Fold these 3 entries.
Entry 1:
Amino acid sequence: EEVLNRVFWRGENTPLVGRAHQGAPGSVIVAAPRSAQSDVAAVIERLNKLDPAVAEPKNVRLSYWMVGGNKAAEVDVSALPAAIAPAMTEVAANEAPMRYTVLFHDSLLSLDGAHARVTTSEFQIGQVASVRPTGTIIADIEIDFPGGVGTQSKVELATGQALVLGQNVVGGATSANSSANPAVSDAIFYVVRPEPAAAQ
């Protein structure tokens, strides 16, 4: 069901090609145009050939940090948590000296291959993450904040590996509250890190 719905998914604000629903035990009900039915049959046939250990659904948890950088006399990562400090230290070595602070942090748990989203008045995160047989994670991620500060990317990560994405911010720091406001940071960095997620 989850695999088929992912195949049908075409992105936000785009109608699904079809929908799959759980039917009686061992069955899936698919509502899709006739032109898509042969593809559905092909997907099911491939799934039937998978090793059961590989095909078993898994939970995927991705943690997200939004890090603001403000110009400083020297690099300062002392305010960053241990989970992302090494990755940001490596990035900071290639940037102008800045003081780095976490503006936002959250994590999103989803079933392998399922689309998940969290939305608040301050941010929006969407992800479709899958665990490969090798154990690495393929993820389509989307992070949006008010004012157009956001990013969208497809990445491959190992559990515990932190990926840093950067985005410059026009304007720079102009407020005493810059440590909590992405609009007044000199640079914005997004850090994504897969975490182990046992079955619930």
Note: Strands lie at 19-22, 28-31, 59-71, 98-111, 115-119, 124-131, 137-145, 149-157, 163-168, 187-195.
Entry 2:
Amino acid sequence: MELKSLFIGLTFTIGIFALKSGVGLYYLLSLKRKLKVLFFSVYSAVYLFIFMLSSLILQKIDITGHFEAIQTFLKSGMFIHMLMACLLLIWGIILVKRQKSEKRITHAWLSMVIPCPVCIMVIFFSAGFLFAFFPDFGNLAVLCAYAVFIVINIATMVVMSFWKVLSDSTPESILGFTMLMIAVYFLLSVILMPQFSDLDKIYRLAAYKGEINIIN
């Protein structure tokens, strides 16, 4: 049960990260229509490098010897996500309020496409989980995770394209609205996740079966 929960959690986290990146990539490709293939190829190559670099590091370095450093970094993850969520929230509001007549290009897509340190650690931990679960096919499993990441990117861009056609909204307003939704998700995760830190203890207490004394 714990293994299944961990797998679902990592898959969901990578999915959210792929969704976020796909939104930013959609906006970029909507501006550079003639260079779509080039930009998407560069984007795919960069993330392939990140996934495979994580795979290489896990094969060459014993991360258990650097656990304290990793733990120290993860403790700052909440602050990084809070800061990023606030940035997306403010920038998203600005884009949503922008009038259709304003044709200015925004660089907000960079905040969606460029991975933050926590997102890179998510990829790294996902690769570590796959290597632990599939020790003989670790590299192939990481490549499959990368393929899922890219498929979610493409699916996100397709949905965004339909959204634009159906709503007749500008790419900037669509980008701003999705930034707001992702910012709210990040803020809720920062607020709610710490409340579940003792959930495993509660589960063990609830599942515990003590001696039952039958009294006439």
Note: DSSP finds nine helices and no strands in the chain.
Entry 3:
Amino acid sequence: MDQNKSIRLTSPIWVSVWEDGGSGTPDECICDLAAQYETEIAHALRDFLFQSFQSDDLMIRFSLPENKALESKIRAKIQAAPLSVCTMEDRLYAAVDLELTSELTEDELDSFIQQVQTQFRDDWGAEFETIGIPAAEGGVVCARLFHDGLSFSCEEQAPRLGQEALKGPGM
């Protein structure tokens, strides 16, 4: 891999909608129809990350306390790991665009992915999923980044993509 390339990690976002405005139990997961909420979820996620951490870069929260040597190697290779959302077909995905200075080993990539899953499950991701996101068509959307069967797919790419949903008036 050439220097300054990026890898995009994607994982499906589990989306539920409360038709009644956010009280009670949400309706079932609508992952196959979640793309229609891309703009609302993208804005809510970005706002949440910037209010909480002043950045959408997951490297700010990256930590491997049980293996500081591996953490140091990963930090030396990943300049940034901004989180956004993207759609593929009718599905909505969390997208982490790794901006790399050099290629990650399989162990480094696996360790990074496991740490991001921990962030999604136990850290700020658990707080984010409690936020009711008003939907343009009515109702309130719940977006869960961590769920049963969570897995990441990986693709190599040159430019950072997936920011279209974040563009709008004043952005």
Note: Helices lie at 38-53, 68-77, 106-122, 124-128.
